[in-house]
Design a protein that fits this description.
IMP_DH (chains A, B, C, D), 8-stranded parallel β-sheet, oxidoreductase (chains A, B, C, D), homotetramer, globular, alpha/beta, 34% helix
Amino acid sequence: MRDLVEIGMGREARRAYDLDQIEIVPSRRTRSSKAVSTAWQLDAYRFDIPLMTHPTDAVVSPSSAVRISELGGLGVLNAEGIWARHADAEGAMAKVIEAATGDEPDSALAVLQELQQAPIQNDLIVEALRPLRDGSHTVAARVSPQRARELTPALLAAGVEVLIVQGTIISAEHVSNDEPLNLKDFINDLDVPVVAGGVGDYRTALHLMRTGAAGVIVGYGQSTATTTDDVLGVGVPMATAIVDAAAARRDYLDETGGRYVHVIADGGIGTSGDIARAMACGADAVMLGEQLAEATEAPAGGLYWTSSAAHPSLPRSEITGLARSGRSLEQVLFGPTDSPYGTTNLFGALRRAMAKTGYSDLKEFQRVGLNLRT
Amino acid sequence: MRDLVEIGMGREARRAYDLDQIEIVPSRRTRSSKAVSTAWQLDAYRFDIPLMTHPTDAVVSPSSAVRISELGGLGVLNAEGIWARHADAEGAMAKVIEAATGDEPDSALAVLQELQQAPIQNDLIVEALRPLRDGSHTVAARVSPQRARELTPALLAAGVEVLIVQGTIISAEHVSNDEPLNLKDFINDLDVPVVAGGVGDYRTALHLMRTGAAGVIVGYGQSTATTTDDVLGVGVPMATAIVDAAAARRDYLDETGGRYVHVIADGGIGTSGDIARAMACGADAVMLGEQLAEATEAPAGGLYWTSSAAHPSLPRSEITGLARSGRSLEQVLFGPTDSPYGTTNLFGALRRAMAKTGYSDLKEFQRVGLNLRT
Amino acid sequence: MRDLVEIGMGREARRAYDLDQIEIVPSRRTRSSKAVSTAWQLDAYRFDIPLMTHPTDAVVSPSSAVRISELGGLGVLNAEGIWARHADAEGAMAKVIEAATGDEPDSALAVLQELQQAPIQNDLIVEALRPLRDGSHTVAARVSPQRARELTPALLAAGVEVLIVQGTIISAEHVSNDEPLNLKDFINDLDVPVVAGGVGDYRTALHLMRTGAAGVIVGYGQSTATTTDDVLGVGVPMATAIVDAAAARRDYLDETGGRYVHVIADGGIGTSGDIARAMACGADAVMLGEQLAEATEAPAGGLYWTSSAAHPSLPRSEITGLARSGRSLEQVLFGPTDSPYGTTNLFGALRRAMAKTGYSDLKEFQRVGLNLRT
Amino acid sequence: MRDLVEIGMGREARRAYDLDQIEIVPSRRTRSSKAVSTAWQLDAYRFDIPLMTHPTDAVVSPSSAVRISELGGLGVLNAEGIWARHADAEGAMAKVIEAATGDEPDSALAVLQELQQAPIQNDLIVEALRPLRDGSHTVAARVSPQRARELTPALLAAGVEVLIVQGTIISAEHVSNDEPLNLKDFINDLDVPVVAGGVGDYRTALHLMRTGAAGVIVGYGQSTATTTDDVLGVGVPMATAIVDAAAARRDYLDETGGRYVHVIADGGIGTSGDIARAMACGADAVMLGEQLAEATEAPAGGLYWTSSAAHPSLPRSEITGLARSGRSLEQVLFGPTDSPYGTTNLFGALRRAMAKTGYSDLKEFQRVGLNLRT
């Protein structure tokens, strides 16, 4: 917890760093990229690539979640989003697209807010998760801390195998006059592994680990669409936050004599280079959203927003429009590509970064040397 | 007073930081935003939100000051501005708007300079403050240090309850061949609380506190319109300046055995996130100007300038034009909104920032953890 | 000489700062700007404002030099420029202006290079300096180190009272197979004060002071037009360089038991705020060029370039075009103005910066507090 | 290896610097640029200027390699590029140019990828190197580590005198299931000097020196076209990397009792100022690519890309288009010029930078003082 700066008399702030301020340093032998493994395992579930999806309707539909799974990652459906509220989810999505690509693109956020006013229907959730369940894919869904207790029974009934409890910023102890969510009790009562977040510091990460979570999410999905920083003054510089959560993981491993809680980085990742940097800082996996929005399988036609875009009184995400490239999810994740910008062949690039620095698995790669650009 | 840098042989400068260089770190429990209070009290006057207005004619008219008060803040009329000099203040304002939105927008500053040449008339001040007085709102007005002695009797007669003595940079001891303002004597002779500023450092803040001021203003209303930095080479990085003034407040509290002087941040605040950061650095309240200019109640039709724009020989503010959104003051302050940029629902956002970091009142929130982005 | 950084193994670099990275901190009493003196004295010559002109043809003609003098500064004619080479200097200047404002503005540099090929004629120099001499203005001219010995007799004959020996970077010991200029001998042989430069560090400044120079120029006229940095990799961050030269001045004062050599800052000054910052760092006076180019009296019609623009094989300055504002030199230097950007009323702004920080003369103002923005 | 920063709890990164963050400080005598030597010797080969070409087809054709040699540098042909794969290399190049300057410039990378699929033909390599060999120019060619063993016999047969083994990032020990390249054995078996790289740190540089290489390349040709940083998260801040490689050179010199291995900087060099900075950091020579692309002799008509642009699945270079100036290689290298931007008269500028700082040869110039801009 060093590198404190006195920003004024008697008040310190800690210097914190973003992923784009660091660089991986090749400083050992090199290795063939064929000899590299990017495999990742969460609880009983094994994945070829360390990828979960950020639970935004802009990227994850029932069918795109299946495709993510087929490609080796974990698709996470938002159990409080459009597919949980609208029988004609595609029609609802079309309204957002129409507004965002029409004459008044700023009106799209209001459309999204309105769609989000419809009630959540358990049968729609069951229906939305069916393709994953029927296809023998790992079934994962996200709930907010506020509604976790209410919605989880339906999710379990719908076959959820990994539960994601995710809000912009969460903690193990939420203070409220209403009935709060005690995460520890909640997780104890469940038979499925829980991944919870986002957090931005060591202490909250450690507290979440102590609730029994299988994974802790660091960050709140910061993307070029996110404006949380401007709205709340709250920020989570991701390189520092991931390193701190990895320190919590290490300390918790020691305190429990061997329970390893996964650290999942969700935010500040724009390119394949940032994925490599996040892993190098200590992440076990990354949550991607914006990077997948351009894929042909993404349901929003190239648009992107995070789940906080639909907040009824204080949204913290724009709806950004990406030119669609015609690339499939497979090409975005594994190439090949004739685009040199780090936005396609995301995991081929990770594999190559590991090879060029001489590492053969992700756990080792967390020790790669780093430079800081200033 | 550490973090000194030797910028050359034998000469030190102190590293100082702006609000947009810091980030609030959520690192504790979270809390429901309903359980949060943003109340603030200055002398006998209690406010629902820690808001004073920057005393610029672009934002504060007699009627907008009333509206600010109805919404829980304190509107401060400039007793040396257009409403104090022109019986037809709205007509005068229209001339500025016409020039700024016409073919030669640069000519608007000259129009403003010319309007400012008209003499101040006490009866106009009385008239301008009448709606506040008649509506039982807290009556506040601003005078410059140069004219404070001359204008204050009329202001008191007009019912002023909080007097703001504000210049770009002021001190407790102004040296002059003309009769200077001794702030201590001046304040001693008054029955109403005085808020004075702006200041940029610990020593001047402490000296102003010792004059008996109820509040000290930090900063000089830096906004995107301000050019003081380019003109004078003088700057007040606000995160550091607020922290230093809060240190002066603490030391003065100790030296007096309990007199608490409020620190009001006036400058460097662009978004609701910056309001949260200013409070986190130790401010008791913020002075807002530019953020309110887009409101339908603001008298300048969406334009903004600070009071130094009208200086006859050395103006230090542009007239900037904001696209008007059609939002009311109420919506700007409290939402709801479909805009994600931190420019509306300003105090709803503050409330949420406090909740997400686990604080329930503003005084506690001054201790929240901070990161420094570099 | 502290603040060294190891940029790699076994190699240090020193952190150095530009003027726009520092801020003047008001931290004392304030003062009326009427009670402030900006007077400066070099040898026997007293000036109302601490201003010399950068010896570029773009700003200094015989008549503009007279005007500068009338306004309280020192105009320095380039004795190797257009007025020394062309009987019809105005016609020559017109060719540059025509090229720069024509269809191929990039060709203007070639025109300037060609004009600079014409031989220097002593009688033209005499003629060019006549208006200064006849008007009882201080007569000052600039020569390069390479041609100082050759041209100085003619300059003295033409009445030069202050001689400026100025190249991009000069030293007290120039090593050459040709006959070098030994500045110490050269200055010893003269009866007029010599100002020499530019330098960028403590050691060279001290060596130049030991040659007997009355003033040392710091910097090489860095402006928005200058590209020396890109061409040579050589840079002089001005805040640090001025502070270092002021340290040399102090040490030389001590070693001589009282000889005070003036430090003149030439570069990195874009606005009146930067003038204040340069003085705050320890400069006794500033050399201005680009700031004066917009004045109606400037001979290049609003264009600007430094003298290195005309180098025959390796020019290091663009020709930049400024929109002409119709302002006179008097207004640029002393206002009043309705422009808030720090480009007019340059010395009124300096006076006000001194007043707001409580200083009454320039020598005291060199001690004002500084912040560093990072 | 100091200047470590704790970017988070228990994890350090090292601050590293780019060439454009440093400045050369003139701090001694000055010198006539005529008295300066830029000569450089690699093994038995002497060069008037410390220039090798980056082995990209965009700059190096058989005829441009000859021209580089005539002008005093070393042209390096890519033995795995278009001239090695296409009998009608000019026709192949024309296809790239046509695509890059047509309606869909983004398609040019795919054209390049396709051209690169054609097999390498030994007789084409022989033919391509003939003009160098016949003209008694130093014959140099580049192979990748992957194909070095296979192609080197043909290269030697074709008269290669200096062999460049260059990949994006290489190491002395490449781990692979296929037969790896053991550089030490490989170099031992050869009679010609080998230059190998790129590397980014001290350790790899030292290991490469121990393989018997005559020169070590630092960097991977970073240019405005390169996107390796975005794709892999790997970066080599060049000022730090050159200094570190120079430290390895010094340590290896000591450990061998006198073997001097040359450090060649390949990347981060945009202007002549950057060439001077690279030499000042300790480079013995620079590899230039992008800077030469505008020359009339360059085969790609003003376009530029690095060799990684043609990677079949993960390209890491754009094809950038430069406006062609009509300048010859001779003018780009030695001027004269009427362009002040540091892109022509590259080695005249280096000579002048050395003169202005008082150095007469390149080895001494590696000790020049440096500032760090922050």
